[in-house]
Design goal:
Helix content is about 25%, strand content about 30%. It is α+β, with helices and mostly antiparallel strands and about 260 residues long. Strand 13 and strand 14 (about 200-205) form a beta hairpin.
């Protein structure tokens, strides 16, 4: 069989033959994947060539379901054609933001400020949860935006436009950043209330600053443990403060008398 354009035979370790497809565009050699047959590899090459040279095709109207070429590879080709930037991850640059295409029905939006991060990292979706592979670890993607693992959507945070895949900063509203802390009103003044769920929510105290309320929650967990209440409460991790500053605030923060009375009553 003669050489087919864009197709290169190769062999597995056991000797079985397979075929690689690739294409050159704007002086860049682009791998298109591996295929069981030369015909499939050639079809992938033709589809890539179609994307790169038919300007009537766009990233939004392309019939991905009918393609043998990998969906994410199609996105990288469209972006390279339209924006002169080739990314290994499935990113498409748009006006003042970019989309990251996990799958046809899983398209995330991000601010341009996040471009370097996501152009070098892979986003995965498992059981409805989004993760990013970061230096060999799987990190919950929402945590990058201040959304804690235990946060409840609609209560602790929400998306302004109701699109849970739109991670542009202006679209994410964090209501409660810390465990056991809610934004509240006490004696007609705005405050942050720290509460510990025992047999219902028990107020630890009301505080002017959110961080103080978060520290108060941690202190309340410690006090409850000293009183014999052994539960797996998740403490707040506060990376804005040095260890010395955290310890100073911890010692100075006052806990409501009612909290002590509840534990000893």
């Amino acid at each position: 069989m003669g050489h087919i354009k864009g197709v290169y035979p190769a062999h597995k370790k056991n000797g079985d033959e397979y075929y690689r497809a690739s294409i050159t565009y704007k002086n860049k050699h682009i791998s298109l994947g591996s295929f069981d047959s030369a015909m499939e590899a050639h079809m992938a090459y033709k589809q890539a060539d179609h994307i790169l040279h038919d300007k009537e095709l766009t990233v939004d109207n392309f019939p991905y379901e009918k393609m043998i070429l990998d969906y994410q590879k199609c996105i990288t080709l469209f972006n390279f054609r339209d924006n002169d930037m080739y990314f290994k991850t499935p990113i498409y640059l748009r006006n003042k933001y970019f989309t990251y295409h996990i799958g046809i029905n899983d398209i995330l939006k991000f601010d341009i400020d996040d471009l370097f991060f996501y152009s070098t990292r892979t986003i995965m979706k498992r059981k409805g949860h989004l993760f990013v592979a970061d230096y060999g670890m799987q990190v919950n993607l929402p945590s990058r935006y201040g959304i804690k693992n235990y946060s409840i959507i609609g209560k602790d945070y929400y998306f302004k436009n109701k699109d849970m895949y739109d991670f542009r900063y202006e679209n994410i509203v964090i209501v409660n950043r810390y465990n056991g802390v809610i934004k509240d009103t006490y004696k007609k003044k705005d405050c942050y209330t720290a509460r510990l769920h025992i047999n219902g929510n028990v107020v630890i105290g009301h505080y002017a600053e959110e961080i103080d309320a978060a520290i108060a929650y941690n202190k309340g967990v410690d006090i409850a443990a000293e009183a014999g209440l052994r539960r797996n409460y998740v403490k707040n991790y506060i990376d804005e403060l040095s260890e010395d500053e955290y310890n100073r605030r911890y010692e100075e923060i006052k806990i409501a008398d009612g909290f002590y009375k509840y534990l000893t009553g």
